[in-house]
Design goal:
The complex is a heterodimer of chains A (112) and B (112).
Chain A lengths: L3 E4 L2 E4 L5 E7 L5 E7 L5 E7 L6 E2 L6 E5 L5 E5 L8 E8 L7 E2 L3 E5 L1
Parallel strand pairs in A: 2-11
Antiparallel strand pairs in A: 1-3, 3-8, 4-5, 4-9, 5-6, 7-8, 9-10, 9-11
Chain B lengths: L3 E4 L2 E5 L4 E7 L5 E7 L6 E7 L4 E4 L2 E6 L4 E6 L8 E9 L2 E7 L3 E6 L1
Parallel strand pairs in B: 2-11
Antiparallel strand pairs in B: 1-3, 3-8, 4-5, 4-9, 6-7, 7-8, 9-10, 9-11
Classes of the chains: A mainly beta (112), B mainly beta (112).
Chain lengths: 112, 112
Amino acid sequence: NAGVTQTPKFQVLKTGQSMTLQCAQDMNHNSMYWYRQDPGMGLRLIYYSASEGTTDKGEVPNGYNVSRLNKREFSLRLESAAPSQTSVYFCASSRPTNEKLFFGSGTQLSVL
Amino acid sequence: SQQGEEDPQALSIQEGENATMNCSYKTSINNLQWYRQNSGRGLVHLILIRSNEREKHSGRLRVTLDTSKKSSSLLITASRAADTASYFCATDWQTSYDKVIFGPGTSLSVIP
C-alpha cells in the first residue's frame, strides 16, 4: 500500500500565485488533515475533514481552502500565496477520527 | 490556543541513558498520542493513551497520563543514536474529537 501520497514534493511560487496541494490515501480512512510546519516548530492544523463531504477549520485556516473530493482525496488550495505561507505542508489521515494519524512525506513550499 | 506544550524544547543525552519529555494540555481530552519525526520527514505514530488510562508501554517506550494535571510524559529507556529525532504530543478535544492538535515538540539528540 502507498499510504498517504502528497503531490508535489517541492514548489516555488511568486507572491499572489495560486496552487493546489493534492493528497490521497488508500487506507479507506474517514478522516483527513492538513498541517503546516514552520522551521523548528510543531505542526499547526489548517483544516480537517472528519468524513467525506465535511470540512472544518483548524488553528490556522486563513488564506487556505480545502476540498474533500471523495473519501480518498483531500486537497488544499492557496488562492493568493503570501511569503508567510512558506512552510512544509503535511497531509494525514486516520480511520477512527482522532487516533493514529498516518502522514504523507510533505510538500516543501516557498513563496517568494 | 495550542492544545499541547512540550518540555524540554531540546534534550541531549548519552546513548544508553533514559530520556524523559513532558507534554501539557489545556482542555479535557479523549486521548493523547505521541509521534516521532526524523529530520523534517512525516511523523510516525508511537503510542496512544486514552483519558481513562494512566500508563502504557510499548517496547522501550513508557507513557503516563495525569488528567488531573493535564499532562503526559514519554520515557524512552536505554536510548540509542537512532532515537535522535523530534517528539511531539498530540491531543484531541473532548468536545471536538475530530480536531487533533500537536504541541511544539522536543528535539532529542542521543550521542553515541
